[in-house]
Amino acid sequence: MKSSIEFKKIKGGNVAKFVRSKKQRDDVPCSLEGCYLCETQSPILNQNRAILLLDYNIISDQIDAIENFEIINNCIIPLSEYLLLNKKNHQLFKRFNQVIDQRNIYIFPNEFHSEIIVSDENTIKKEDRQIMLFSKTVEYLLNHFLNISKDIKLIVLTNSNNKLKYFESKIYNNIDNKEYQENLSI
Prior knowledge:
The structure is a single chain. The protein is of the alpha/beta class. It has a single domain (about 25-185), classed as 3-Layer(aba) Sandwich (Rossmann fold). It has helices spanning about 55-60, 65-70, 80-90, 90-100, 125-150, 160-170, 175-185, and strands spanning about 1-10, 15-20, 50-55, 75-80, 105-110, 155, 185. Helix 5 packs across helix 6.
């Protein structure tokens, strides 16, 4: 259980204490068919096809393509990106939910996974926190899928330059270029 405490001045000049708790879990499934590392009750993703990992920017910029092309299937959306979509553009969120109902799209609860922890402190900007959370999710899923099979291909779709810079500097500096290209296409 992870808690953050915040004090805010409320109406009437009083100060209130807000405690936000998140339960960090180890048993969050990846929802991949045939995954022996997770206890997936009803798998959504097919490991014989490439798995797309979409971020907020791609969904918001390419919603028409996502709606109209059936090739955008077998996808993972991190919960943090999904909630950001709801917060920034509710109309787009409704359209995307209709697509989720028709396709194999899994909302991965990344904020609640114990291996994907990003601080909620006020010292980190919301955008930087979002980038770090998405990047740690990519790193976790890539390692998780590699432990299942080397044949599973994870394709990250983003058009955020900040996320791409973070990938290059933080995550993949321990992986040689050939292995990087075999396992992840950006």
